[in-house]
Design goal:
heterodimer, A: mainly beta, 0% helix, 55% strand, B: 6-stranded mixed β-sheet, 11 strands, 53% strand
Chain lengths: 116, 114
C-alpha cells in the first residue's frame, strides 16, 4: 500500500466551527507532514511529526492544532478559522530513518477547505 | 532565506515534442533535489529525484539534469503526452536546517496541445 489517504475531500466551515482533518498511511513511514496550498502556489509546510513527536512548527497560528495519535494517523484540528485560511490542505509522509530514501515525501489528495 | 525559483511560469508544447522545465536554486549547500507533478485537484506526485553528487538521472521518459556550477536543475520529458499536462514543482532539501524540510520552487504549468 503506497497511498496516503485524507478525509474529508471537501469541507466548508464557519468561523466559529471546530472541525478536524484526518490523514492515514500504512507504508510504515514514521514522518508525517501537514502542508497548506493556495491556488497556483507551491505547498507551504505547516507541521512535521517525526516518530510521533512534533519536530517542526512553521510558526502556524494556534487555531491550527496538529495531533499524531499513532504512527499511521495524523490529524489537524481547526478552530476559529478565518476566510484567508481557505486552501487545499495536504498531508504527506516519508520514511522515518534519515537517509537519502527518506527525503521523498508521499502526498495525499488533500482536503479542500472553505471558511465562510 | 534560500529559495528555489523557476525560469518559466508556463510552458506550452505540442504532443510528441520534448519538454524542458527549468529550475534555479541559490543554496550551494543543497544536496538533494526532487521534482513533483501536480494535476488539477490532486496532491503532488513524485517524478524523479537526484543527489548533488550526480549530474544526471533518468527515469521512464524523464531525465533530470543538475548543473551545480550555475545552480540549475532541469526536468526533461520525452515525447510529451496530454497526460503530462500539470504543474511541475522542483524542491530542494534544506540541508542547513531541519533535514525533513523541502524548499519548493514556484511551479511551472505545462500545457500539452494535441
Amino acid at each position: 500500500d503506497t497511498e496516503v489517504t485524507q478525509t474529508p475531500k471537501h469541507l466548508v466551515m464557519g468561523m466559529t466551527n471546530k472541525k478536524s482533518l484526518k490523514c492515514e498511511q500504512h507504508m510504515g513511514h514514521r514522518a508525517m507532514y501537514w502542508y497548506k496550498q493556495k491556488a497556483k502556489k507551491p505547498p507551504e509546510l505547516m507541521f512535521v511529526y517525526s516518530y510521533e513527536k512534533l519536530s517542526i512548527n512553521e510558526s502556524v497560528p494556534s487555531r491550527f492544532s496538529p495531533e499524531c495519535p499513532n504512527s499511521s494517523l495524523l490529524n489537524l484540528h481547526l478552530h476559529a478559522l478565518q476566510p484567508e485560511d481557505s486552501a487545499l490542505y495536504l498531508c504527506a509522509s516519508s520514511q522515518g530513518q534519515m537517509s537519502y530514501f527518506s527525503y521523498e515525501q508521499y502526498f495525499g489528495p488533500g482536503t479542500r477547505l472553505t471558511v465562510t | 532565506g534560500e529559495s528555489v525559483g523557476l525560469h518559466l511560469p508556463t510552458l506550452s508544447v505540442q504532443e510528441g515534442d520534448n519538454s524542458i522545465i527549468n529550475c534555479a536554486y541559490s543554496n550551494s549547500a543543497s544536496d538533494y533535489f526532487i521534482w513533483y507533478k501536480q494535476e488539477s485537484g490532486k496532491g503532488p506526485q513524485f517524478i524523479i529525484d537526484i543527489r548533488s553528487n550526480m549530474d544526471k538521472r533518468q527515469g521512464q521518459r524523464v531525465t533530470v539534469l543538475l548543473n551545480k556550477t550555475v545552480k540549475h536543475l532541469s526536468l526533461q520529458i520525452a515525447a510529451t503526452q496530454p497526460g503530462d499536462s500539470a504543474v511541475y514543482f522542483c524542491a530542494e532539501r534544506d540541508s542547513a536546517g531541519n533535514n525533513r524540510k523541502l524548499i519548493w520552487g514556484l511551479g511551472t504549468s505545462l500545457a500539452v496541445n494535441p
